[in-house]
Amino acid sequence: MQPPDLSRCTEEELWHYVAWHLEGEGIRSVLVGGAVVAIYTEGLYRSGDLDMVPDDLGRNRLTEALGKIGFEPTQSRYFKHPECTHLFLEFPRGPVEIGEEYPVIPAEIELEGRKLRLLSPTDSVKDRLAGYIHWKSRANFDQALLICQRQMDRVDLDAVRDWCAGEGGVSAFEELVNRLNED
Questions:
Q1: CB neighbours of 49 closer than 8 A, spacing ≥ 6?
Q2: How far apart are CA 1 and CA 6, in angstroms?
Q3: How far apart, in whole angstroms, are the C-alpha atoms of residue 97 and residue 166?
Q4: What does pTM read for this prediction?
Q5: 90/71 Cα distance (integer angstroms)
Q6: What SS3 string covers the chain?
Q7: pLDDT by residue for the chain (183 residues), tens digit each?
Q8: 8 Å CB contact between 117 and 103
């Protein structure tokens, strides 16, 4: 796979490139967090980083694989590419969970013969609502709303409602539905 224009690529373009490369190195990962929102909102939201939960493996193996495509570890937990100054990579520890929901089965896309994984639109809405329910983050609610508005045919609102009930966030779900009905 050819690299995107790293000086101005989107989260989705960078994810395709990095995840495809890691998959070729035998490292499976799941894209979570704000970069998923950027993808599902078709760029209306920009995250600035890619959170990819890798299989349980050592940091040395990840560092070696990323080094092959020009990413280097920073003094913190991030990886940066010198040509990609607007986005960086982070690899949080797994497993992928959304609130009390585990396991989370990621969505898959196939790209040039390799499977890449990310949260589904439904799980991304739950993930963003988790931030709203547990930390009162209005920005997270707004991101959940944007995903629903752009991906309504792919968001299972019944599953979101049930998940919210389990998290003690029925009012967050009701607010989401009310906002969707305003449009």
A1: 33, 34, 35, 78, 87, 88, 89, 90
A2: 14
A3: 14
A4: 0.96
A5: 11
A6: CCCCCCCCCCHHHHHHHHHHHHHHCCCCEEEECHHHHHHHCCCCCCCCEEEEEECCCCHHHHHHHHHCCCCEECCCCEEEECCEEEEEEECCCCCCCECCECCCCCEEEEECCEEEEECCHHHHHHHHHHHHHHHCCHHHHHHHHHHHHHHHHHCCHHHHHHHHHHCCCHHHHHHHHHHHHHC
A7: 999 999 999 999 999 999 999 999 999 999 999 999 999 999 999 999 999 999 877 788 999 999 999 999 998 889 999 999 999 999 999 999 999 999 999 999 999 999 999 999 999 999 999 999 999 999 999 999 999 999 999 999 999 999 999 999 999 999 999 999 997
A8: no
CB 93 within 8 A of CB 53: yes
Cis peptide before 103 (omega within 30 of 0): yes
